[in-house]
Amino acid sequence: MGFGKTTSIGKIANRLKQEGKSILIAAADTFRAAAVEQLEVWAKRADCEMIKKEENADPASVVYDAIKAAKEKNTDVLICDTAGRLHNKKYLMDELEKIQRVIERELPDADKEVLLVIDATTGQNAIEQVKAFKEVSNITGLVLTKLDGTAKGGVVIGIVNENKIPVKFIGVGEQIDDMEIFNSEDFTKAII
Ligand SMILES: Nc1nc2c(ncn2[C@@H]2O[C@H](COP(=O)(O)OP(=O)(O)OP(=O)(O)O)[C@@H](O)[C@H]2O)c(=O)[nH]1
Ligand SMILES: [Mg+2]
After folding, report:
1. CA of residue 80 to ligand 1 center, whole Å
2. Cystine design at 119: which of 3, 45, 151, 165 (Cβ 3.0–4.6 Å)?
3. Can you tell me the mean pLDDT for 168-184?
4. Measured in angstroms, how far is the CA atom of residue 146 from the centroid of ligand 1?
5. What does pLDDT average to over the chain?
């Protein structure tokens, strides 16, 4: 909840776009109307197209539509924003599983990344989150946000050691360029 998923998607989309890739963003957080609007603002900033449906639409169907569009347009990268808050945890996990099933079925041979976004200010709770999400997702990387604040993000080192999941990006602010590719040497120095 408010960990920085949508913001990170905007930043990652912008970075990939600047590398010359074509990007499509799927608004698969259909639970909150404001979520789609917020993502749309980021898509515009990053100059990327976005696929959306009506509020409360099935998120997996948004992803399905987005995959179809991405295939038609030969898009390089499709990025899916997912909900962070639902009625309860079981709904959230079921929804994520369903989205992943659609992706596996429709894009069996594509390179896929599942990024779990972790707020550096949540401390030890991050460990519980990784555990919960690992049960339903094959997480390929972590994004550690809000490292510009007071949190040193030391907790992430434990997570990485324990789970062998690499940190791919770090968020260091609210602006579109406030993201860095994680460099474990610099990070260890900063924490020390
Ligand atoms: N300081 C700082 N703020 C951040 C960073 N990343 C995100 N935020 C802020 O954190 C708040 C929540 O970010 P969102 O991107 O909406 O988080 P979310 O995970 O998509 O939230 P939900 O969709 O509600 O689950 C916003 O006010 C962002 O501006 C960061 O790296 N540093
Ligand atoms: Mg969001």
Report:
1. 16
2. 3
3. 90
4. 8
5. 88
| Distance, C-alpha 173 to centroid of its chain | 16
For residues 119 and 3, the answer to whether their CB atoms sit within 8 Å is yes
pLDDT class for 6, splitting at 50, 70, 90? Answer: very high
Rounded to whole angstroms, how far apart are CA atoms 9 and 179?
11
CB of 146 within 6 A of ligand 1: the answer is yes
Q: Can you list the domains of the chain with their CATH numbers? A: 1-112 (3.40.50.300), 113-192 (3.40.50.300)
Among the listed ranges 44-53, 134-143, 150-159, 165-174, which one has the minimum average pLDDT value? 150-159
Name the helix (H) or strand (E) containing 24: strand 23-28
Measured in Å, residue 111 CA sits from the centre of ligand 2 at 23
Strand order in the sheet with 115-119: 115-119, 141-145, 167-171, 179-181
